[in-house]
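During the no-cost extension, the postdoctoral fellow (Dr. R.K.) reprocessed legacy sequence entries with the updated structure-token encoder. One reprocessed record is reproduced below for audit purposes.
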Amino acid sequence: MDFQITSEEFDEALEHLRKLISLNTSNPPGNERLACDYISRVFRLAGVPYEVVQAQSTRRMVVARLEAGSRRDDALLISAHMDTVPADEEGWEHPPFSGDVADGYVWGRGAVDMKHMVAMGMSVLVLLKRKGISLQRDVVFAGVADEEEGCEKGSLYLVENHKDLIRAKYCLTEVGGFTMHLGGNIVVPVGIATKGFAWVRVRSQGEGGHGSMPVHNSAIIKLLKALKNLENQTLETRLCPQTMAFFTELAHYAPMPQNLALHLMTFEGLVPRLLSKVKDAELSRYFRAVTSDTASITMLGAGQKENCIPEDATAVIDLRILPGKKVVDALKKLQSILGDDVALEIIKSAEPTTTQYPTPLWDIIAETSMKTLGAKGVVPYVCPGFTDAIAFSKAGIETYGFAPVALPPELRFGSLFHGKNERVPVEGFKKGLDALWQVVLAYCR
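Re-encoded structure tokens follow.
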């Protein structure tokens, strides 16, 4: 029996991606119902059994399972969120909700983050059903909602209310699986950790009054003085084992002198000095994110009238915490930096996540990446953001960042997330689908 994906089936998956991009599931407000209904129709026509779950009427999710037997604990879950961040059409070469194919790319919001994985995951289940492949382990697909706003109405809702639907041993989701060009070598990062987060409201109170008569202890002045202490946007430089593994493994594939610099990055005391030498802005931002607990000021608010000094002022800080520290400890550190003139309140938070490696699935991913993506090897990767792993880790599911796609050397992958002109290479998408297909076959067939 031929288990290869045909050119017509690749084109079919590509068309699914284009149609999914054309559905505006920007979060807020979400409206993932549009994508859920589309996927449900595809599954229904293909004879793939599925269930629809909704936290709210417009926040629907779809979960499908191809069963191998009575056991569910060793299943493989493919998870992808259907929501995207919003997109302003200004500055895009192709409209963000067009799904246009041009210059060898599929363009649009969600092409990388992460409707390409939605299209690949649903296509894998359709192909397994169509080809009548006998499974030794269940294969599960979950198209989830609300990842961009913290997963509360998405994967967290699934885990808390419908855990049995997604019961599995392993999960594949974002971020990882993309090709990195390092000298003459291609390596594939595979996510083994995500930073925790806390969105923190900072509030100050002070004397108000008429704007013509300044006061020295106003709420705004207190807030600005406190925020001044966060000028470098870092709580502390701190290496976790997962970051050290990333630098160590990456050094194996890097040419001189980069391999030496990467090795030196495993020495915590040298990190600030080495970061100052990194000229590539995108790389510098990533290295800083995975070697520090960070704090970004994202919102400011105070006052309602031009000539009135307000008695209250607020800011919102986005805390990101490496594995090895809890959110509550990072909050204490933030309070000590800002001082006692401000009060802190957590709006939403989740702890860091980690995944064991190597495992049998890790070995399959490594072998497949070398065969289908041309990689010399895979390296453990730390995601500076959060993913649906924050939910699946609570369910005891080992979650890897592996949403495979082959990228040309000149494409800056990091800038595509939440950026203008988000796009994925057509051929890179097809190679990614083949990689995901081969991983599923190797683990589940």
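The mean pLDDT is 95. The chain has 14 helices and 20 strands. The remaining legacy entries will be reprocessed before the final report is submitted.
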